[in-house]
Amino acid sequence: MSETMTRSLLVMFIAGMALQGCADSLPDRLGAPIEGYSHTSAAINRFSVNGNGGPNLAPYGYGGGQMCCATLPVKWHPGLTVVVEWEKDPNPYDSANWPKPRYSDAWLKAAREKEAQYTRHRAVVTVAPYERLGVVNVHFLPCNQVAVTAGLMMPRSPNYPYKFPQKMQEPATCPKP
């Protein structure tokens, strides 16, 4: 065997051993898809988990499919939190009464006035314990409260950590944070 071939085989062996070590270790964090659930009469125009976007949500709706991705630890640990930011439309059906035709000056004025009514929120939310990282489910609740899960179970499964009704009413007054 030539010296060049011996060197090449030695380099390939060392590289293979180095890669073997990589294959045995699991990552500490992974990206998980994001889904949302609105349990209120408001529309969630957009939201994010740790800066990564989720779908828009209709009032009382599950919506938009999964978006990618919130990076979370593979293994849950006590004190695990995420930052959820969202924009809420408290009166999502107002546009039915806007001036016609669509995109006229009067319609655009109504759209700007409507957009000024949107509210923006931010919450640091504790993530419910999970055995294995799965879909990040964000539940929007009355009084601008949010709950988050990140396991393999989906709402309505027996061991899901939250049992929120799909339709929840806003109380006359919300508790102070």
Descriptive account of the structure:
The chain has a domain at 29-149. 19% of the residues lie in helices and 31% in strands. It has helices spanning 3-24, 105-115; strands at residues 29-38, 43-49, 52-54, 67-73, 81-89, 119-126, 136-141, 145-149. The longest helix is centred in the N-terminal third of the chain and has 22 residues, at 3-24. The radius of gyration is 24 Å and the shape is elongated.
Termini gap: 76 Å
Number of helices: 2
User: What overall geometry do the principal axes of the alpha carbons give?
Assistant: elongated
Would you tell me the structural class of the helices and strands?
Answer: alpha+beta
Order of strands in the sheet with most strands = 4-1-7-8
Overall average pLDDT: 86
Content of β-strand: 25-35%
Give the total of beta strands.
Answer: 8
Radius of gyration: 24 Å
Helix content: 10-25%
Oligomeric grouping of the chains: single chain
Main pleated sheet: 4 strands, mixed
SSE pattern: HEEEEEHEEE
The stretches of 5 or more residues where confidence is low (pLDDT under 50) are 4-19
Keywords:
alpha+beta; four-stranded mixed sheet; 177 residues; 31% strand; four-stranded antiparallel sheet; 19% helix
In short:
By secondary structure, the protein is an alpha+beta fold. The chain has helices at 3-24, 105-115; strands spanning 29-38, 43-49, 52-54, 67-73, 81-89, 119-126, 136-141, 145-149.
Write the layout of secondary structure elements.
Elements: H1 3-24, E1 29-38, E2 43-49, E3 52-54, E4 67-73, E5 81-89, H2 105-115, E6 119-126, E7 136-141, E8 145-149
